[in-house]
Each structure stands twice: as structure tokens, then as C-alpha cells.
Amino acid sequence: MQLIQLQPAPASIVDAVPGVKRFHIWTIGCQMNEAESAKAAALLRQAGYVPAVREWDADIVIVNTCVVRQQAEDKALGYIGALARLKRRRPDVRIAVTGCLVTGQERRLAERFPWVDLWYGPSEFERLVSLVPELADVDIDLVELPHYYDEGQADPEVTAFVPVIYGCNFVCSYCIVPYRRGRERSRPVEQVVAEVEKLAARGVREVTLLGQTVNAYGHDLPGQPDLADLLERVHDVPGIERIRFLTSHPKYFSDKLIRAVADLPKVCEHVNLPVQSGDNEVLRRMRRHYTVEEYRERIARIRELIPDVTLSTDIIVGFPGETEEQFLNTYRLLEEIRFDKVHVAMYSPRPGTLSARWPDDVPREEKRRRHRAVEQLQERIARERNERYVGRTVEILVDGLARGRWRGRTRGNTLVFFEAPGDWRGRFVEVRVTQASPWYLLGEPVTVGAAEPAILTR
Ligand code: SAH
Ligand code: SF4
Ligand code: F3S
Questions:
Q1: Tell me: domain 21-142, CATH 3.40.50.300, correct?
Q2: Which CATH architecture has domain 393-445?
Q3: Ligand 1 closest atom vs CA 349
């Protein structure tokens, strides 16, 4: 297990702002967790709390966990373990743990970590009331205002995640998510639109619609609207300039959805379509419900209808029984498709899933080798893909400062940094790309005449 240390304890614990209560949130896992932590933060602010950079200064600490791989689970367990010391020194601190670690495990966890005051499952915000009585007066469904923290200061976000469908109806043999997030539940179109309108009013310019299988959206709603219909509705919200969505399942990536991305100007030309493996036998044992040929055909269609689209995918290496030849099929698929971004993970058996009953027979060293091979291949491909931007001008939305440089993303979701005086946050900026790396681009804002930045404020 990983050893997690809290930030060093201060020599003496003093309440910096007497009478004001403070919260600290620790998050690991997917964008759904980020969205839920943002919502918890918004709720606590509504209840009068302010953020604390360090656990030591907080009146309530919320831990948002993930168990998708052993490594994530170990990190969360290590952090919860480290909080024992905080609780010993400050018995008045309230500790709440949420996220996928908790579902169905409360009793077992409570025995192991008695210093935790509350265990609550994903989205069960109403249960926070027992630790934060002030929340009794807050309308939980109406608080959807994310904030970001920058050195203790909180500002409204420029971009926001909006969950649109919870849970997952697939049962991929390696995956624990359906056991911890349950069956699919779509939020009604009107509720999503109302939330996006509220975000736009707060200054948010870009929304990412979230779901474990976001393109399954709507089949459980009256009238069965689909993701393309939802995109069209969100597209009408004034103030929102960019729309993204995550994560899609290849089985449901319909022509209608591809056309929506192609035709709706605000929907960004970026598709995240996890393939997991490039070998049909492995895909069958993963219970993915598509073949490599079907996947390839979808990608070809996407590229045909959305010119200049950027593509990302997820890969698992070292799945039970994965032979060298089967791994090479994945490797060759990556060489063939040339994704802009690949998230690669070493297979990690998750108790309770189907594949956990099969021998985890690819040795750790071999998993590492395959992982490295994919990373090295992808580093080369991503560099070549990104180099096509050098000399071109791209439009980015600046979402913040990172180590003295302004940071933004292109419509294709590529990271771009530039240096310039002034405050560029929340602005659409035309940047001429001067340098490319596999992970980001460097550039300079396009200037008109003197030093006047050409800013596309909308
Ligand atoms: N719903 C998405 C992803 C869910 S989990 C999809 O269908 O692709 C996010 C990523 O974690 C997955 O894409 C997969 O690559 C990885 N993952 C999930 N379970 C895993 C496991 N047991 N071991 C290693 N990686 C895993
Ligand atoms: Fe897990 Fe598969 Fe559902 Fe994705 S589609 S969340 S990998 S079960
Ligand atoms: Fe992790 Fe749960 Fe997300 S297991 S990846 S936090 S859905």
C-alpha cells in the first residue's frame, strides 16, 4: 500500500478566520468524481463554509475515492489511514468518505477506520446533513455551481462537468464500475439544460457532459431522447461556446451522433472512444460487445464526417491470457489509427468482477513492458500528430495559470500554453503555435498591430 502523508502539521493549530468553518476535499478517480467533489464544495459554500488548503485547517474533510484499479484504491486507503493522526490531534474535525470505495462496503470500512464519521455512496449528498447541519436549509438539487481552488482562493470555473447519465448497464468482465455505480439513470433533458443555463450565467463557457457510457443517454427517459438530441438542446444555451462529452461506448456511437458532432458548431471535434484491446478474442473475453473491425469502421466514419477530428482511447494491457500476439494486435491497431491521446493501464484484478476469477497470468514485469511499449509508441505518434499544428493558429479557451504560463485547450482538447502579461482567464484566444510536444503545444497570442492582443471575447 502506498504511504500517503498529509501536509506537515503546523506547530500550533490556530483558526485563521475565527468563527468561519472550513472544508477540505481530496479527490481521486474519473471526471464523475471531480464533478461530485465540485458539487460537494458548492454545497458547503452554500452552507457558509470556505475552502481550506490544508487538512489541518479544515472543520470537515471529504475524501472522494476510486477503486477502478488497485493503485487508486490503495491511494484512497492510504489517505484515509493518514487522517487518523489528524483526528487524534483535532478530535472535533469531521471526516466523510464517499466515492466508489464506499458502495456496499460501509460496515467493513467503518470497522477498519473508526475515525471516519460518515460513509456515503456516490451522489448521496443529502447524507452530509448529519455532519453539516447547516445543509438542512440548502436545496441540494439546485446547487450545481462548481468552483476551482487556486492557492486557497475560489473562483467560478470557466469549464464545468455536467453528469447526464449515472451508472452503467454494460458488464465488462474486468470492470468494477457497474457494481459501484449501479444501473443507468439518465437525468431529464430539462434538468440538464437548466443546470447548463445556470453555469452559463456564472461565466462557464465550456461544458463536458458526463457518463460512464454517455452515448447510452436517454433510453430510460420518456420519449427516449438520445445524446444527439441532448447536444442540440444544450447547444441552444446562450453563453456556452463549447460542448464536449465523455465517455462513449463504441457499440452506441451512431451515425446520428457523429452528424450531431459534425453539424453543431459548439460541439467540439473531439471523440473519446475506448477500444481497450485490438484483438477480437481479448475483446470477447472482456465482454465489450464489438469487434476490431466494427471499431475500425466507426473510426473511419467519424473521420469521414468530422474532418480534423481528434481521437482518444483507453487501452488495458496484460488482460488475463493476453498473449504476445494478442498484445501486438493492440499495438498495431494504435499504429494504424494514430490516436491523439491514449490512456493505457495495466490490468488490475478487481474482486467481484468476472475476470477476477481467471488467473492473472501475465507477469507484472511483462505488463510493465507492454505498458512502456504502448507509451513509447504513443509518444511518437502524439508528437507527430501535434506537430501538424506548428505554424498554424488555433483557438483556445484559457482556463487558468499553470506555473506562470496561461493554459488553455483547443477544440480538439489539446493543451496549449503561452506567456503574456494580463488576465486571460475565461477568454477565447487565437494562438499561433510555435512548438509541439507529445503532450502539449506552446504558442503566442496573435497580436494585431502594436501589442494589442486579438481576443475573441464573446
Ligand atoms: N466507461 C468507460 C471507462 C470506465 S473505467 C469505458 O467503457 O471505456 C476507465 C478506464 O479504466 C477504462 O477505460 C479501462 O481502460 C480502465 N480500467 C477499468 N477497469 C480496469 C481494470 N480492472 N484494470 C485496468 N484498467 C481498468
Ligand atoms: Fe466499465 Fe465497461 Fe461500463 Fe465502461 S462500459 S464503465 S468499462 S462496465
Ligand atoms: Fe473510479 Fe468509480 Fe470513476 S471506480 S473511475 S470513481 S466510476
A1: no
A2: Beta Barrel (2.40)
A3: 22
CB 240 within 8 A of CB 203: no
384's grid cell: 507527430
| Atom in ligand 2 nearest the alpha carbon of residue 171 | 8
Tens of pLDDT, residue by residue, the chain (458 residues): 445 656 655 544 444 567 899 999 999 999 999 999 999 998 999 899 999 999 999 999 999 999 999 999 999 999 999 999 999 999 999 999 999 999 999 999 999 999 999 999 999 999 999 999 999 888 776 665 554 444 344 466 899 999 999 999 999 999 999 999 999 999 999 999 999 999 999 899 999 999 999 999 999 999 999 999 999 999 999 999 999 999 999 999 999 999 999 999 999 999 999 999 999 999 999 999 999 999 999 999 999 999 989 999 999 999 999 999 999 999 999 999 999 999 999 999 999 999 999 999 999 999 999 999 999 999 999 999 999 999 999 999 999 999 999 999 999 999 999 999 999 999 999 999 999 999 999 999 996 433 344 444 44
Angle at 177 between CA 175 and CA 179, to 5 degrees: 100
**What is the bridge-based pairing of β-strands 159-166 and 153-156?**
unpaired
The count of other CB atoms within 10 Å of the CB of residue 102 is: 24
> Which atom of ligand 3 approaches the CA of 176 most closely?
4
Nearest CA to ligand 3 atom 5: 30
Binding region for [4Fe-4S] cluster: 30, 66, 100, 168, 172, 175
DSSP state, 131?
T
Q: Is the CB of 212 under 6 A from ligand 2?
A: yes
CB-ligand 2 contact for 168 (6 Å cutoff): yes
For ligand 2, is residue 181 a contact (CB within 6 Å)? no
Q: What is the CATH number of domain 156-268?
A: 3.30.750.210
Check: CATH 3.30.750.200 for 272-387?
A: yes
Contact 190, 233 (CB under 8 A): no
Query: Residues at the annotated binding site?
Result: 30, 66, 100, 168, 172, 175
